[in-house]
Specification:
single chain; 7 helices
């Protein structure tokens, strides 16, 4: 049951990240010309998409890696240490990227609601408020212990130093794989949307004609 819920959460995160990458791609080239806060908003959305895909790929790797480690005759305690450290590294990376960028998106959505006062902007601001508060509270509760475990793994006890080094290197490798997967996936979706949508042409079509 727990695995099923995790898979559903990862699928939802993947779809949200896909939507984010597609959205920022529609305005990527144009945001370079417009600049300012609009460009910052698009870049922040791109970073969020990368972090979201990184989380998905990271936890997929954590789900499948024990199978290969068991095939390699790695003992259960070492596998558990590897899983814990990899999970903590992925979590801290996602927190370090999603929390700051989330604050920017949250504040911007509140600003948009204040200016527009529409139902859609209100729903967006409400969801962003819930998501940001939830993520921030969760990070405040869980990040310190995750950082403590990472520090202990990197600088802790002297026992089994060689084994600990291998575990740390493998965990870092998993994080790097997940980040690269997130980056290339978000970039591919963003570039495709950028090629297919022209914001300036769309605005020109919507411009009313006067005779």
């Amino acid at each position: 049951m727990a695995i099923l819920l995790l898979v559903l959460a990862l699928a939802l995160n993947f779809m949200i990240s896909w939507a984010n990458a597609n959205y920022v791609g529609r305005y990527w080239s144009e945001s370079k010309e417009v600049g300012g806060s609009f460009r910052a908003y698009i870049v922040v959305g791109y970073i969020m998409a990368i972090a979201g895909f990184t989380m998905v790929y990271g936890y997929i790797l954590l789900l499948v890696s024990p199978v290969f480690l068991q095939m390699a005759k790695v003992d259960q305690d070492t596998i558990l240490m590897f899983e814990q450290l990899s999970s903590d590294l992925i979590y801290i990376f996602c927190v370090a990227t999603m929390i700051p960028t989330g604050f920017y998106i949250w504040i911007r959505s509140l600003k948009n609601f204040w200016e527009q006062k529409t139902l859609s902007s209100g729903l967006t601001a409400g969801w962003n408020s819930f998501a940001q508060i939830h993520n921030t509270v969760s990070a405040a509760r869980n990040a310190p212990s995750a950082l403590g475990r990472i520090a202990k793994s990197l600088f802790g006890g002297k026992g089994k130093k060689k084994d600990n080094t291998i575990i740390v290197l493998c965990a870092i490798f998993v994080l790097i794989l997940a980040i690269f997967g997130g980056y290339f996936t978000a970039s591919a979706i963003m570039k495709k949307a950028d090629r297919e949508y022209d914001m300036f042409a769309d605005l020109q079509k919507r411009k009313p004609e006067y005779f």
